[in-house]
Design a protein that fits this description.
Structural class: alpha+beta
Shape: globular
Number of helices: 3
Strand order of the largest sheet: 2-3-4-1-5-8-7-6
Radius of gyration: 14 Å
Number of strands: 8
Oligomer: single chain
Largest sheet: 8 strands, mixed
């Protein structure tokens, strides 16, 4: 499995204040979208998320987002080495993702840019 990069996931109460800070820090504008009632802003390697407590509590359990070339390949590699895929693969606005529980208890999101046709 080829890992292309990582994104740091940050759950925030005040998305607008966080966006201003991270835009200033990185010098890049936020790419914004909503998913499942959660407002999201992607800024450089940071993924800011804000929304209802029930949704955010679940999102806080995912340590980071890992970009991969192909989610299906990641699924096979993760399963082969003993990880448990607990959600997905599913389509997202930017491609596909899955959530995996590693044998050490860590939870990671794996995403690709293979946008469904």
């Amino acid at each position: 499995m080829e890992i292309l990069g990582t994104t740091l996931r940050i759950c925030v109460d005040d998305l607008e204040a966080a966006v201003a800070f991270y835009e200033g820090l990185t010098g890049t504008p936020a790419l914004r979208f909503e998913r499942g009632g959660v407002s999201v802003a992607a800024i450089g390697c940071f993924l800011l998320m804000s929304g209802p407590a029930a949704e955010i509590d679940v999102l806080r359990k995912v340590a980071a987002t890992i970009a991969v070339k192909d989610v299906d390949e990641a699924h096979a590699a993760l399963t082969r080495v003993g990880a448990k895929v607990i959600a997905g693969p599913v389509p997202t606005p930017a491609g596909r993702n899955l959530i995996a529980l590693h044998p050490d208890g860590s939870v990671f999101e794996y995403v690709d840019r293979n946008v469904p046709a």
